[in-house]
Amino acid sequence: MLISTKGRYALRVLIDMAEHSGNEYIKLKDIAERQEISEKYLESIVKQLVIRNIVVGLRGKGGGYKLSKPADEIVVGDVLRFMEGSLAPVACLEESGATCPRAAECRTLTFWRGLDETIRRYTDSFTVADLTRTDNAGFDYII
Amino acid sequence: MLISTKGRYALRVLIDMAEHSGNEYIKLKDIAERQEISEKYLESIVKQLVIRNIVVGLRGKGGGYKLSKPADEIVVGDVLRFMEGSLAPVACLEESGATCPRAAECRTLTFWRGLDETIRRYTDSFTVADLTRTDNAGFDYII
DNA sequence: TATCAACATACTGTTATAATAGGGAAACGG
DNA sequence: CCGTTTCCCTATTATAACAGTATGTTGATA
Description:
The two termini of chain A are 26 Å apart. By secondary structure, the first copy, chain A, is mainly alpha-helical. In chain A, β1 and β2 form a beta hairpin. Helices cover 46% and strands 6% of the residues of chain A. Chain A has six helices and two strands. Chain A binds a DNA duplex (30 and 30 nucleotides) through α3.
């Protein structure tokens, strides 16, 4: 599985914020109820989004979270990559990983690089704003 | 990680067979040595390939494994899909999985379907024969 | 019939996932 | 200033998959 609940839930949180925010802060409790996701689990996910400055939080009454920038400036691929650590389809292509000693003679490496690039291109071609549209505009992947 | 060692090793085994077979059976021990993979672990992988009739085995002296059909008839996507169980990028798109009750209202489903389709197209555009070529012909994914 | 190699089953250490539990710190409203 | 609200922080845990290891059995060949 390329994408776990971390990446999936993070996207849903961002979309929810984009659709419900009138520049006000939204309580995590509300998002959790709308999305039917455990509030406590969402906390750990939103925490990452705060660290990455995708989202800002405010404590106390009237507090909550909101997007730190317009939804059309948040690239889906970026969100998924840091929530998952990496979107590399195979271990040998992970950013942090040591290069495989067999790389020079590897028959499959070029194939994996191509798959990695294909995934990158697709995920980077969408912003959170694209996903808020219900008419599915922007989904031109069907040739 | 979309692809584990199961899928990666399976591909390497098939490529190895395609490159070293003169229609003779190849010992798993030889493949394991060339590929630097544990012979015992390879057994569990090749077993799946036999079940799927990609490879045939022969016991006893002079025995081993060989491809059951020409390398250019073995689609990489097929091999990866059954070795990994699924290549779906998210749980909600797995063949066996029950459909998500939120599917009708899900903002992200179309996005995931597009990613799934993108991965399928790429992996289905290669055969094992393509990967045996050292000149990387066929890798036209770079536009 | 001895050998060789595929076939079969069971077990194990490690890691990631998907949470849950419980409290602490800051901001705002009154 | 005080108490409620809401974010923030640190464990802990159950489950499952991954990546192998170990041991033994069956069947073909020379």
